[in-house]
Amino acid sequence: MSLAPILEINPHYPQPHHVQKAVEVLRGDGVIAYPTDTNYGIGCAIFSKKGIDRLYQLKDRDRKKPFSFLCSDLSDVAKYGLVSNFAYRTMKQFTPGPFTFILTATRTVPEMMHNRQRQVGIRVPNAPFILAVAAELGRPIVTTSAINPKVGEALVDARSIKEVLGNRIDFILDGGIQPNEPSTVISLIGDEITLIRQGKGILS
Prior knowledge:
alpha/beta; two-stranded antiparallel sheet; 6 helices; 27% helix
């Protein structure tokens, strides 16, 4: 298998042609790497069973632990998570940004994408390029951090991603060096803010 090509992008000002290129790969059940506002992620389209299967194999992850996914904007979140008035006000305050919100899944979400409690993790990162890709794709992108599976360390640039994962993914969006700062995970279930993991995002 050939190594994934690298496409240099401006992560803050999405170039339409580059966005379209990434969307084409995702629509073909592809897996891509991309910069976010926290780290480099790898992902696929939410309704791509082949792509999700590849992510689980790549991360050697327990199938009982679903991945989170990112939406293009806050209005898109309500299609995939039950958003109360409280949840909407909270997310509006912190999006786009380095947060993952735990919500109850709607029936639109594939079963493999939520846990037994029908809960999902949803992000709207402050990352204009990948948000533009999700918007053009017309559906969320399943997302997980890009790491070296042998040592568990984050891959912080496109070259290292290609060296380690290049034969297992299809496309790499190069947005420069991206420090490894995981998102802050908060649950909004039951109209309460519960901190699950402290990361880059600061609750205020």
